[in-house]
Design a protein that fits this description.
The complex is a heterodimer of chains A (348) and B (214).
Chain A: E1 2-7, E2 12-19, E3 24-31, H1 33-36, H2 44-66, E4 75-81, H3 85-102, E5 106-110, H4 111-118, E6 135-140, E7 145-150, E8 156-161, H5 167-177, H6 184-192, H7 217-229, H8 244-272, E9 276-280, H9 287-300, E10 303-305, H10 316-328
Parallel strand pairs in A: 1-4, 4-5, 6-9, 9-10
Antiparallel strand pairs in A: 1-2, 2-3, 6-7, 7-8
Chain B: E1 3-7, E2 14-19, E3 22-27, H1 33-49, E4 58-62, H2 68-85, E5 89-92, H3 94-100, E6 109-117, E7 120-127, E8 134-135, E9 140-143, H4 147-151, E10 155-159, H5 175-185, H6 206-213
Parallel strand pairs in B: 1-4, 4-5, 6-10
Antiparallel strand pairs in B: 1-2, 2-3, 6-7, 7-8, 7-9
Helix pairs in contact in B: 3-5
The chains are: A alpha/beta (348), B alpha/beta (214).
Chain lengths: 348, 214
């Protein structure tokens, strides 16, 4: 089985070829970061235009690197949501056209489901890790924080999601205010490695109603106040030559985000037990999160799966893989019927 | 030549299969549902024409100006169909397709107008004496009260008709039907399938305009 994946939900144009055992034969990602940088964030209209421009070359490169031709594809998997509707429609329309013309099945893939199963993919052309159902999944990115249970039959049960900011979004906002540029996650991660994360304890957001939902806006506001108090106003700073107190402050901020994520994982483990925890999304690249959750898993006998860093940001390999799994579970595969959805919560 | 023509850019979207001199047309809804209805409509048109997609010798698509999402859906779908079957693809200005709707009415030149949003029109004049409409100058934006001066002695074609005053006569055919007929009569320049998919916009994106003004 050869699956062609297409991802255009936000600001990465990506195409990938994955086989029936989950071997990633190619995974080409063209980032539009430079196109959006002058605007200080992703502009939906600019994103849609750029996808239309980038897609032909990205698709050709994915096929070429996999040593495949379009005629070899047996399934097309294209992201159908959630995401920017104009951006989604470019990749999904192209995928529908390709599949329809070749008489192939097409799965419209939930982008978050793509992340969820990405922890099972391995780099270097290795087959995917065996899917250990049931498992728990933690999807953490610039737009999402979701903790779910994936049941024996593949049904996804949402357990917690963020009520306000996503963790990646909090990293971005703090980094911008600290004058450290965009995206914020990688630069804060690097700085935090030489800081003391226990120096400035921040409170972890918990809802009063006993819900497991995440909240990062209180933490973000507290951190913004700390920056303000120190006269930090967003003027560019050199990440390698920061005031040691600011280094510790950023490390403490990151520590609080990791602690909030670990808190919910622990509570779910206490309530229903976990065998496997698959972590995914852009924030899954964070060094402290990876180390903390791996150590926690080791202490509690939970297998913690961490995706290769190449699969943490938006990419079409995870879409191809999730599309194949969805097709095997009996998801609809008529290319003419796949519709784009800007909002599409996991498990619906 | 058997032609599949797609228009999701203009205000009355449709798809057409043109086979010999017969046109099999399927109308599409105007809003975002056009994207969901596009492939089913192509399937129905092919069914009525009694052929498979692989029999099509050319795919033609309205590449804008027009509905932002519609332009992208039409182009991306047409590109996918074309790339998958190696069928040559023509991406044609929506204004040119509009000009082609007036062919046979006895006029040698036509001024085509579409809505450019924000109270403006996007306009282009074409010469119709050859087998394909030939642009007389690149498309430009104007206000509604400038339309008749822009048109001069040319016949006026506008969608919607009330875009100009007095209202233009209704086009005798849809944009997709006129485009399919034009391409069948005289196939034009083909889009390279390994290059950026060429959309035509009536104006820069709002973000780009704002940044340009800042």
């Amino acid at each position: 089985m050869i699956v062609l994946g297409i991802e255009t939900s936000c600001d990465e144009t990506s195409a990938a070829v994955v086989d029936g055992e989950g071997r990633v034969l190619s995974n080409v990602v063209s980032s539009q970061m430079r196109a959006h940088a002058p605007y200080g964030g992703v502009v939906p209209e600019v994103a849609a235009r750029a996808h239309l421009e980038n897609l032909p070359a990205v698709l050709d490169a994915a096929l070429e690197r996999a040593g495949k031709r379009l005629e070899d594809a047996e399934l097309v998997a294209a992201t159908a949501g959630p995401g920017l509707i104009g951006a989604l429609l470019v990749g999904l329309s192209a995928g529908r056209g390709l599949a329809f013309a070749r008489g192939l099945p097409l799965v419209g893939v939930n982008h978050l489901e793509g992340h969820l199963f990405s922890a099972f993919l391995r780099p270097g052309g290795e087959p995917a890790r065996p899917l250990a159902l049931p498992f728990h999944g933690l999807v953490v990115s610039g737009g999402h924080a979701e903790l779910v249970r994936v049941e024996e039959g593949g049904r996804i049960v949402p357990l917690a999601r963020t009520r306000d900011d996503a963790p990646g979004e909090a990293f971005d906002k703090i980094a911008r205010r600290a004058g450290l540029g965009y995206p914020g996650g990688p630069v804060v991660d690097r700085i935090a490695q030489r800081g003391r994360g226990d120096r400035f304890p921040f409170a972890i957001g918990r809802s009063g109603d006993g819900s497991l939902d995440f909240s990062f806006s209180g933490l973000k506001t507290a951190m913004l106040r700390e920056l303000e108090r120190r006269g930090i106003d967003g003027s560019p700073l050199d990440p390698e030559r920061l005031d040691p107190e600011l280094v510790d402050l950023l490390a403490s901020f990151q520590r609080a985000i990791v602690a909030a994520l670990l808190d919910r994982v622990e509570r779910v483990h206490a309530a229903e037990g976990m065998q496997t925890l698959a972590i995914s999304g852009g924030v899954a690249a964070n060094t402290e999160l990876r180390a903390t959750l791996s150590a926690w898993g080791g202490e509690h006998g939970v297998a913690v799966l961490l995706p290769d860093r190449s699969f943490t940001t938006d990419n079409a390999a995870m879409i191809a893989w999730a599309g194949l799994l969805a097709a095997r579970r009996g998801a609809p595969t008529d290319p003419a019927a796949a519709a784009a959805r800007s909002r599409w919560p996991l498990g619906t | 030549m058997i032609v599949l023509a797609l228009d999701t850019a203009g205000p009355r979207p449709s798809v057409v299969i043109r086979l010999a001199d017969a046109a099999f047309e399927e109308a599409l809804p105007r809003d975002r549902r056009a994207s969901e209805e596009l492939l089913p409509a192509i399937r129905r048109a092919l069914g009525r024409a009694g052929i498979g997609l692989e029999r099509c010798e050319r795919i033609a698509v309205c590449a804008g100006p027009g509905s932002f999402t519609g332009v992208h859906v039409g182009l991306a779908t047409a590109w996918g169909l074309s790339r998958a079957r190696g069928i040559p693809l023509e991406a044609v200005s929506t204004l040119e397709a509009l000009a082609e709707t007036t062919r046979g009415s006895g006029t040698a030149s036509v001024a085509a107008f579409l809505d450019a949003g924000r109270g403006e029109l996007v306009a282009e004049r074409f010469d119709l004496t050859g087998p394909r409409a030939r642009s007389l100058a690149p498309a430009s934006r104007c206000r509604a009260d400038e339309a008749s001066a822009f048109a001069g002695a040319s016949r006026v074609a506008a969608l919607p008709e009330s875009l100009v005053a007095p209202a233009a006569p209704p086009p005798p055919t849809s944009l997709a039907a006129a485009l399919a007929a034009a391409v069948a009569r005289d196939p034009g320049r083909v889009v390279p399938l390994d290059r950026p998919i060429p959309a035509l916009y009536s104006r820069p994106s709002a973000a780009e305009e704002k940044r340009g003004a800042a």
